[in-house]
């Protein structure tokens, strides 16, 4: 029985800052960001969006036939949760008016949480082939103003529907994971920004790439020529180039050229949106489908997921005949084109104007965008949310 991704929805907030502007404001050469890091734009997240609303807005972009009575599981993978106890997935079920007879929970393991959710959903559908699962990778990457990681910020969510006989990507039974306890990235409870050793984290990422790919080839006898594209977790797009370069000595020229060209296509949305942590790998998949019109049904795609701390996993899937129609490509381009460019001062003001920490009651101004869901504020210790569609009586 084939199991995999049936449809994908994408959402990112409506504000961004151009990284050439940011480079000038920080006294850096623009090429340091646009070439050295590989980013052009960075999503700026207003106080009206959090991981719950990002997740619900992404799921709202799915095809109309995606979330029906077959839904049996809802998983949110995130490292940006807004509650230490209650799962974001529960709030998503309410906001989307989903079937309440579902299992709903969150998964946390840095940027690997979305992949853990996807593979758990695959196992769920294998045991319950008449059911579907909704997996949403939703995150906000924040490192602080003028910090070393500032240029690798971003926000967004990718919603994945997992089913039997999927219309987008059949997942193969070849997932291989490696786990090692390393101190490359932390965000202790109570801290709003992480503590990261960037050079060590990059080194660890590339070490995991080498180990996982070598063992996968040993166990599954796959070759680089078997893949139409290799996709990577992209905290910044230059990381994908580094990963492919680490594997390049074992490739022939034709494979290297093909995989390099496809990686460039898979990086385009990341260059514009920035780092979305758990969703970054799946943003690459969306980008590949939207930007590269040479890929075809039957092409095998390899996917490498990484979460600091750390877990690395490689798995693969095969594109299905209707894959291009299971993502709202026109809607994605419209969403990105409608975003508002902020100057650096405006970006800094938005960055600092967040819902206050603690549990005091607060109200957030109504968001002026086309997003259906937004944060309304906090009352009686809990966040509450707005549904623009419902408020307009649609």
UniProtKB/TrEMBL annotation:
Any single biological process term in GO: acetyl-CoA metabolic process
Keywords from the UniProt entry: Transferase
One GO molecular function term?
hydroxymethylglutaryl-CoA synthase activity
Where does the record place the Hydroxymethylglutaryl-coenzyme A synthase N-terminal domain?
Answer: 2-163
Among InterPro entries, the record links this protein to: HMG_CoA_synt_C_dom (IPR013746), HMG_CoA_synth_N (IPR013528), HMG_CoA_synthase_prok (IPR011554), Thiolase-like (IPR016039)
Is the keyword Protein transport in the record? no
Source organism superkingdom: Bacteria
The entry's active site is: 79, 111, 233
Q: Which SUPFAM superfamilies match?
A: Thiolase-like
Q: Which Pfam families does UniProt cross-reference here?
A: HMG_CoA_synt_C, HMG_CoA_synt_N
Q: Which residues bind (3S)-3-hydroxy-3-methylglutaryl-CoA?
A: 143, 242, 275
Which residues are involved in binding substrate?
148
Q: Where is the Hydroxymethylglutaryl-coenzyme A synthase C-terminal domain?
A: 178-249, 251-341
Q: Which NCBIfam families match?
A: HMG-CoA-S_prok
The family assignment reads: Belongs to the thiolase-like superfamily. HMG-CoA synthase family.
Per its record, how is this protein called by name? 3-hydroxy-3-methylglutaryl-CoA synthase
Source organism phylogeny: Bacteria, Bacillati, Bacillota, Bacilli, Lactobacillales
């Amino acid at each position: 029985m084939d199991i995999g991704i049936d449809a994908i929805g994408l959402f990112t907030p409506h504000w961004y800052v151009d990284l050439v502007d940011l480079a000038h404001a920080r006294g850096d050469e623009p090429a340091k960001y646009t070439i050295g890091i590989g980013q052009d734009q960075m999503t700026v997240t207003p106080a009206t969006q959090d991981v719950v609303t990002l997740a619900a807005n992404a799921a709202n972009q799915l095809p109309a036939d995606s979330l029906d009575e077959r839904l049996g599981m809802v998983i949110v993978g995130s490292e940006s949760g807004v509650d230490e106890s209650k799962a974001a997935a529960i709030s998503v079920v309410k906001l989307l008016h989903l079937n309440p007879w579902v299992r709903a929970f969150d998964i946390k393991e840095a940027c690997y949480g979305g992949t853990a959710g996807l593979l758990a959903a695959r196992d769920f559908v294998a045991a319950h082939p008449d059911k579907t699962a909704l997996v949403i990778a939703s995150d906000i990457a924040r490192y602080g103003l003028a910090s070393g990681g500032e240029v690798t910020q971003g926000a967004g969510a990718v919603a994945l529907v997992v089913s039997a006989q999927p219309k987008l990507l059949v997942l193969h039974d070849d997932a291989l994971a490696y786990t090692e306890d390393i101190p490359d990235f932390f965000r202790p409870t109570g801290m709003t920004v992480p503590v990261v050793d960037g050079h060590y984290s990059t080194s660890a990422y590339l070490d995991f790439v080498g180990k996982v790919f070598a063992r996968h080839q040993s166990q599954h006898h796959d070759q680089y020529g078997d893949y139409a594209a290799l996709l990577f977790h992209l905290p910044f797009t230059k990381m994908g180039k580094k990963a492919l370069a680490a594997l390049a000595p074992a490739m022939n020229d034709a494979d290297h050229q093909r995989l390099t060209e496809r990686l460039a296509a898979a990086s385009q949305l990341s260059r514009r949106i920035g780092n979305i942590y758990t969703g970054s790998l799946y943003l690459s998949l969306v980008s590949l489908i939207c930007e590269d019109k040479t890929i075809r049904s039957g092409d095998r795609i390899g996917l490498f997921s990484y979460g600091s701390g750390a877990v690395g996993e490689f798995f693969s899937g095969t594109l299905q005949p209707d894959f291009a129609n299971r993502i709202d490509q026109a809607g994605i381009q419209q969403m990105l084109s409608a975003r508002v460019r902020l100057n650096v001062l405006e970006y800094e003001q938005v960055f600092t104007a967040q819902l206050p920490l603690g549990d005091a009651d607060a109200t957030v101004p109504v968001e002026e965008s086309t997003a259906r869901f937004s944060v309304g504020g906090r009352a009686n210790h809990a966040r509450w949310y707005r549904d623009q569609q419902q408020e307009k009586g649609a």
